[in-house]
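Weekly puzzle thread! Below is a chain. First person to post its structure in token form gets bragging rights.
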Amino acid sequence: MAFTMHSHSGQFCPGHAKDQLEDIIKHTISLGYTTLGLTEHMPRTSLDDLYPEELDDPEGSLAVLFPRHEAYLLEAQRLQTKYASQIHILIGFEGEWLRPAYEPLINELSAHHSVDYFIGSLHHINSIPIDYDASYYARAVASAGGTEELAYQRYYDQQLEMLQALKPRVVGHFDLVRLLSSQPGRDVQTEWPGVWERVVRNLRFVAGYGGWLECNSSALRKGLTEPYPSRQIAEEWLRLGGRFTLSDDSHGIAQVGTNYARALDYLVSLGVTSLWTLRRDPHPGLAAEGEKARLVEVEVPLETVKAVVSKW
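Winning reply:
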């Protein structure tokens, strides 16, 4: 069975994603996906948090975010019902930890009766994007003290704040900070022991509350040689007994399942034999009026995912 726990659509993530959500679902079904986690970006609350493509009309861009999120949840529930016989759709969102003030909003959004889970992600250092472009990344590094080592340390410290506050079931692209760095393949364990200490600390915390890391193949389509997380981190995670889920972090039809074959080979090289996903009960719908569905953790043999991907 093939699946992803992290995906986006152009319908509800305009600007840097493509395609209507229903068209994406139909495409995943055609590829043989059996589970699809929908995780559109959560709304932001401040003009300071907008991206460049949203600044032509900042007030308007901000005002539409909450209505768009509400529309997403309604459409996701409709599609979950419509395609229930063909694919198991989980409804979630990607949490944005721009600053600790976002904690109450993330908790409020995750309490919605239709929401099964959320991805706990960090895309910023000191509220400055680290994965948008080189200019923003440089600003983030400067804000952390001017060196990449200090920026990495700040990233993992702020990630810990997010982890401690939210305890997300799925931690998104654990080491996203390396995407635009000068040496994405740097041996941080040897070269930056202060960074590595923070990495291990955060991994231990996630393992302690039973969270999962995603093996996120989007790093490969963005030019990195390994998925998120990198081999050093993945090996440490496995030593701690940690579990992996699988994500393409797709932003449209063209990216569904992209580089899954490479990501699965990577996991095999690490000795991973099983991946994890969720099943909701009931599916579709709610356990009772206004009550969330029960979630069951499902172990998926990696070879069954490879069997599907090999036919693409």
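Puzzle host: Confirmed. Bonus trivia for everyone else. The CA atoms of residues 5 and 312 lie 19 Å apart.
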